[in-house]
Design brief:
By secondary structure, the chain is of the alpha/beta class. It has helices at about 10-20, 50-55, 75-80, 95-110, 110-120, 145-155, 185, 210-215, 230-240, 280-300; strands spanning about 1-5, 25-30, 40-45, 65, 85-90, 135-140, 160-165, 175-180, 190-195, 220-225, 245-250, 270. The protein starts with a strand and ends in a 16-residue tail after the last helix. This is D-2-hydroxyacid dehydrogenase.
Length: about 325
């Protein structure tokens, strides 16, 4: 059996993997090489490097392990037609992403951008807008594994957490949980609104200018899920009209965000380059999911962890 990685883990991660599965023919590259696909049984990839042609070349391919949570850029229809199993690393992002989100919130609440700017200008200035995270309310749209970790950390700061999911069933570390179709009723309640939603037909352009009008004037809106939740045009309108206090964006409808885009010019937005999940431990945590799944696969059990419906996108 051949397992082809279109990424090249560090030696301290790669060598134990090869030793643990001596019966496997592992191939590691820093990027996809089409000549390796024909005899590949299992493909380990970030997903964005695949297209329809690659699936056609992969005549023996049975399983794609995606070292990412999102699969929206993969050739879903072609993969589904072939009946190829897809699983991902859902859940490994929760620690670094939750830390990034908490860091951004505390930075804004305690006026750290103001501090950094003053330091650069050698200016002693105490006229900052300071507030507390303690005692506020956060609305988490999509309280899955990452959302639950955000909720856990927020509750440590005595933040009241409200979750929105498809079912309305209770979610971990949420004080209340509602259905996502109750969004408009919940938006006015929160000082902090965090979207962790995946990209699906239902979530595309879910938020509009009118939804931002329902938010509090002192609200912080954060999108760390997928960029097609709200169009760039709508975001610009919201910022121009100062409907809310601040936005923190890690994902965008178009990536990379063009250098001449209006979004860069506003003071009431933080533009993060879609790297909140990055960590020196990213591949390490991915392999912690891959190894047990591979053992299952080799024993004939294809009910691997984080098995996905490629056409649904999750």
């Amino acid at each position: 059996m051949k397992i082809y990685f279109t990424l090249d883990p560090r030696p301290d991660l790669k060598e134990p993997l090869v030793s643990e599965f001596p019966e496997i023919d592992f191939t590691f590259h820093k990027q996809l090489d089409e000549s390796e696909l024909a005899d590949t049984d299992v493909l380990v990839t970030y997903g964005e490097d695949l297209n329809d042609h690659h699936i056609e070349l992969s005549e023996q391919l049975k399983w794609i392990f995606v070292v990412s949570a999102g699969i929206e850029k993969m050739p879903a229809q072609k993969i589904a037609e072939r009946g190829i199993l897809v699983s991902n690393v859902r859940g490994i992002h929760k620690k670094p992403m939750a830390e990034s989100i908490i860091a951004h919130i505390l930075s804004l609440k305690r006026a750290l951008p103001f501090v950094y700017k003053n330091q650069q200008n050698c200016e002693w200035n105490k006229k900052a807008r300071l507030s507390e995270l303690n005692g506020s309310t956060a609305l988490i749209i999509g309280p899955g594994a990452i959302g639950a970790e955000i909720g856990r950390l927020l509750q440590a700061f005595e933040v009241y957490t409200i979750g929105l999911n498809r079912s309305g069933q209770p979610a971990p570390f949420m004080n209340e949980t509602y259905r996502i179709d109750e969004l408009k009723e919940q938006l006015p309640k929160a000082e902090i609104i965090i979207s962790m939603l995946p990209s699906t037909k239902e979530t595309k352009n879910l938020l509009s200018y009118e939804d931002f009008k329902l938010m509090r004037k002192d609200a912080i809106f954060m999108n760390f899920g997928r960029g097609d939740l709200v169009s760039l045009g709508e975001l610009v309108r919201v910022l121009e009209d100062e409907l809310i206090f601040h936005m923190v964006l890690d994902v965008y409808e178009v990536e990379p965000l063009p250098a001449d885009h209006k979004l860069w010019k506003f003071d009431n937005v933080t533009v993060s380059p879609h790297f909140s999940s990055h960590s020196s431990r990213y591949v390490e945590r991915s392999l912690e999911i891959f190894k047990p799944s591979l053992k299952k696969w080799l024993s004939g059990d294809h009910d691997v962890e984080n098995k996905m419906d490629i056409l649904r996108g999750y």
